């Protein structure tokens, strides 16, 4: 018996998987570069002032020129972000344990958890 015309052998399947992996990395990069190029062109064509919308090239130049100042601010921001992530994770796990352990706590606080989930993030930050 011969294989159906659409069947792929083990070697062919390996090439397809490799091609899909390459494309899964290559395509987002191409889209990113295209978006940056369009952004650069739009800023140049419409002469948008840098204080309204800086061009990607100006952002890169500024990052390079002011890296000493910006890097210290970056580390402060990253530290705060990761500390907040740790605090939120510990709080969420603690609340989940309380909900799982005592049903009366779950029944008491679950409606508030649902309300917070469906409330837009912008509304909770105001």
Q: Could you characterize what this model shows?
A:
This protein has about 130 residues and is an all-alpha fold. Helices cover about 80% and strands about 0% of the residues.
Structure at a glance:
This protein has 126 residues and is mainly alpha-helical.
What attributes does this structure have?
extended; 5 helices; 2 domains; mainly alpha
- Order of helices and strands, N to C? HHHHH
The portion of residues assigned to helices is over 70%
- In whole angstroms, how far apart are the ends? 70 Å
Total number of helical segments?
5
Question: What are the SSEs and their pairings?
Answer:
Elements: H1 10-45, H2 56-65, H3 67-101, H4 103-118, H5 121-125
Helix pairs in contact: 3-4
């Amino acid at each position: 018996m011969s294989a159906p015309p659409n069947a792929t052998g083990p070697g062919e399947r390996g090439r397809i998987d490799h091609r899909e992996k390459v494309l899964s990395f290559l395509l987002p990069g191409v889209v990113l570069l295209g978006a940056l190029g369009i952004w650069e062109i739009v800023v140049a064509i419409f002469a948008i002032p840098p204080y309204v919308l800086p061009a990607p090239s100006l952002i890169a130049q500024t990052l390079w020129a002011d890296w000493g100042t910006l890097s210290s601010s970056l580390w402060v921001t990253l530290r705060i972000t990761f500390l907040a992530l740790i605090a939120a994770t510990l709080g969420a796990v603690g609340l989940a344990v309380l909900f799982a352990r005592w049903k009366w706590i779950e029944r008491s606080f679950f409606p508030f958890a649902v309300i917070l989930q469906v409330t837009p993030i912008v509304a909770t930050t105001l």
